[in-house]
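Continuing the series of single-chain predictions for the mutant panel. This is the parent chain; the variants come on the following pages.
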Amino acid sequence: MRARRIILWIVSLVIGVPLGLVVLALVVVLVGINIGPGQRLIEQKVSPLTGGMVQISGLSGALPQHLKLARLAVKDSKGVWLELDNFELRWSPLSLVGMDAHVKALSADRLALLRKPISDTTAETTETQASSSPSKLNIQVDLDVLKVSQIEIGPDFTGKATLFSLNGHAHIASIAPFLNGVTMQTLPKMDIALQLARLDAAGELTLSAQTPKDRLALAVTFKEGVNGFATTLGQLPQLDPVDMHLNLVGPRTAAALDFGLSAGPITASSTGQINLYTNIANLHVKANAPAMTLKPGIGWNAIALNTDLHGPLKAPAGQGLLDIDALTAGGASIGHLHATFDGTEAAKPEDTVAHLQAALDGLRIPGSQPTLLASAPLTLDVTAHPLAATLPVVARIDHPLMHVAANVEVKPAAKGHVTLALPDLHPLAAIGSTDLSGSAALAADFAMPVTDHDDLTLESSGTISVTGGQPQALHLIGKDGHLALQLSKSPANVLTVKSFGLDGQALHLLVSAVVDLAHGNTMQTKATVALPDLRQASPALLGNMTLTATADGPTDDLAVKAGLEGEFGTKDVAKGPVALDADFQHLPGRPQGTLTAHGTLDHAPLALDTAVQKTDDGAFHLDLNKLSWNSLTGQGKLRLQNGAKVPLGDLDVSIKNLSDFQRLIGQAIKGHLALAIHTTEPQGAPPQVKLGLDGALAMAQASVQALNLKGTISNPIDDPAPDLALDLTGVRSQDITGKAHATVKGPQSAMAVTLNGAFQNVMGSPANVDAAVLLNLPKKTVRVDRLTAMAKEEYIRLGGPANVSFGDIMGVDHLRATLAPQGVAPATIDIAGSIKPRLALTATVDRLTPAIAKPFAPELAASGVISAKANLAGTIDAPTGTVALTAHGLKMQTGPAASLPAAEILANIGLAGKTAKVDVTLGAGPKVALAVRGTAPLSKEGAIALATTGHVDLSVANGVLGASGMATKGQVGINLNVAGTASQPRATGRVELQNVSFDHYAQGVRLTDINGAVVASGDSLTLEHILAHAGPGTIALDGTVGIFRPGLPVDIKVISDKARPVSSDLVTAVINTDLHIHGQATTRVDVDGKIVLPSVTVNIPNSMPASVAQLDVVRPGQKAPDNTSSLIIGLGIDVISPGQFVVQGHGLDAEMQGRLHVRGTSSAPSITGGFDLKRGNFNLAGINLNFTHGRVAFNGTGVNHKLDPTLDFRADRNAKGTLASLLVTGYASAPKIDFSSVPTQPRDEVMAILLFGTDAHSLSTTQLAELAAAVAQLAGGSSFDPLGKVRNALGLDRLAVGGGGGVDNGGTSVEAGKYVMKGVYVGAKQATSGSGTQAQVQIDLTKRLKLNTTVGTGGQVTGFTTPENDPGSSVGLSYGFDY
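Parent structure:
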């Protein structure tokens, strides 16, 4: 028993003592932290333990279950960024024993987020390995009360402080699912409620969530008024106010969704049902956004989304529709996007299909060719089987400039086949400012690695056909170029280019490489380039060349070997063998190697032997061991120390006879050149470099009789001090001759530079310059001691020495200069002060007149005086001060503009750092008065408050317009205001048009009584029913132009009613229009609608008058000239003529009706349809021929956005068994008139039948003359035709003079008559002697049988009496036949 007690005592001692010590320690700690000194100690230790980041004060309460802090502050390198006042935590630590974290209350009076914290870039981040085993921490969390009386968000976020309050509670059954990655199946039972409310404005965010078993009740609401926190934080004031709700309620297998959002004008909604376990849903989603600018550079005209989807969310069935109009973002824009989605369920999951189609019209891309893709839609077609094991996707992108097709399997790793076709390289090459025509095609197969042991592979092949443009590409690659690529990337990150080849008709390239990306980018590369015919590279060259090169080693320490060998020559230089070898190591940091060449060039041996080395100290060494070819020789050694500007050593290069090179360069050249660099390095003294360049040069374009540069550079390494002189004598360039002398002398701190030159025939007159400056390069200053220059007898003279500083300190110490031609009062320039770092500058320009520019623009004849004065302070980024400009009496003295009144401009600008106060007025007599006043920003985010007012009497422009045959009148009143910022301006006000008229006399355009207004509202201008009268009708314009919106969207309606805007000798038209002009003015504008032509008269003139512009016509099949424009104009117009479309001229008189369909673009219109003949006849030499067929079709395209219709008219006449036809074809600008017959007859016979109804053998002398006149008329000539002139003036069909066998003994007779209807002729015949008169009526009974009736006064007839010469009255029949 005693031993047992001893054992129990020992065990109790072993366990109890430590446990007692622990309990004692806990008691001591609990007592310590709950007494004043202990709590003060904690406050002191928190800061050093957190590296000064956290500071607390006012610690109190019964710890640990009741913690109170008077203040907590969190700091970074800039100071405090987070504050917490009167924090209180009441919880039950003992509840943790029951796995329940029970917090009775968590509250604070104030939580302040003062600014954005600054991250510590020096802090090391430690990556922790996440445990793969699931957490078993099934702790329940109960937060009974959450309350923060005031949450303050500092002005660093939204520009001003924002106040909130927070209230809520939370009960979560277990936190383990959240630690393990919560899913809808493992979502614990919860009851959460939060309310975040604005205290300083209207606004509230509420969240309520309950998750009983297999059910869900989630409700979220968010409401904010104008200037809400979220929209202000996102800088999206256009989305105010915001009202959003989200409700997801019901069984988790069938939860009902109700979502709604209104953000400014944007609305969105979604309703339906979701199985949250299987993600199968039945949803209807709808969204609409009207025209708006969301942010600078981001905007649209309209967005509409409407979808009905059901089934799995990753493979939904149903339909969706998305339309976006005039979207602009990031420098790109889309005129219109139309996208449709169609999902189809199938019995087998792998057969389920998701189909997306999209068309992008008017696509604008950033870069040098922004409208490259805007002329035609870019279409996208994607078909996917989302439930198939490999997730196959088939996609196509189509545009006239490119066709992309892809057949890809996404799972288990992406692989597939992609093709690219580029049918026209010319517009694509223009992106790189390259002229290249042709086509290209590419096909590629790729496979991403499936496992960690697989390679990434890519195999590609293609063709390229160059048909024009850059000569080298055209001749080296040609029409049948081929390229191929094979590469792979291993799991060890080794990239292997098995081969990359390009083969053309005179170019063969082959490259292979292995690059170890995991070990310093070590590579092994081999390349071969073969040019079998150098003429293809340049017509002046002959021979062939092959280049082989290898590169081995890391990319920062490469060894490169290259060899170029072949035969080289030109048209004037015989081919000879040439070889060039390069061998370099340690590229690119410390190059070391040799460059050698040998061979025969122009029958002379060529030798080059050089060595290059960069040493460890950074010095660069060049050894020219040998250079020899003809009279060219060279030898020397140079070294350039690290940081030095002048090399040391010796080098001699000379060309004793430059004519040795004339066959190589292909032009005559004479002279000689010699360069010498010699360095002396005396012991104990800095080195000295002696330079010498001596020569003479004579070429056809220019020559220098003597060029001499000589002198020395002392101490070239530490402080170079040049003493150099350059002389150029006998300088000639085209007609300019002269000489120049320049010197540079002194150390860098006082380097004197002089320049003196005198030249003749510079722009037709002498010119000279005389300047002297003193440079201080270390201090970056220059003193201009002397400057006088003259050109075109205009002088610029420096008023005295001026000091100019550049670099970190910039300024001018009083620069005074005068500028004036001879005999004119000089303009003066006076600048003094500093520019940076502080701006303190005064500048004055006085007496600046147009006469100063007249020597360089002799045609300029103007008067007036301009003066400006500036007094600036502050900094370049935030200038202050004043700028004033006055322009008095600005007026042209000659030309059409001389009639304009003199202009007076007064501008005063007050600079105030980020803004400028503007007061600018412009006046030109009583007819023009404009003013701009207010505040303008000096940065993109600066505020604008500008008002533009004034009026313009448009008749002031008639002096200029009159020279072009135009005139205008009326009043324009302007009252506009612009506010906002420079990046997002907003406008109000209006521009009124009052009683405006416009006439273009040459074109017959007349518009009168034009009235209306252009109203500014926000970012758009509204055309408020601008109504113009045109003849008896009107033309009205209504719509909007997004003047400050991205992409400049346009939406305008043009309605005309019985308008006659054009009435001229060529065209007179009455039109009714209903046109819609819409799109983006920076990219593409489409013109859609209808034009009805109730009445049109088109006159085809015999010749185009000089005042009418001739059309440049492109016939079908002809290539139009390149006339690119940055704006694409799409056409979708129907032109309808119900009748009264009359075409007249060249004897043609026809009335048409029909319809045209104008599609395509203005630069490449596609026009179908035409106008068909209703009635028509052709007057040929006084004979009216009725048309049996006629059509005007628009198959020609005028390159100046004009149309040239084709003509197709036919008139028939039957006579003597022959069907004679008149054909009018060709273009309206160049009609063709021809004849045909059945059976085929000579052209004179056809014309005789058409004109006189008989063959040429039966024509009288006068009829033969008429036939000749008709030929002249059809040929476009102007032969004398008095009968035709009289006949046309009298409106007769027949006017003839007959002779021989006529009435009254064969005397001459005159006959006149007209067909009163088809086949009925009424006429009269009178003998010139006056003794016989006869009236005739002739009726065509059949083609050959005619009824003739005559009533005559009688007379004598010589010979036999015939129906033609019977002087009396008669009735009879005649029958004619051909023989």
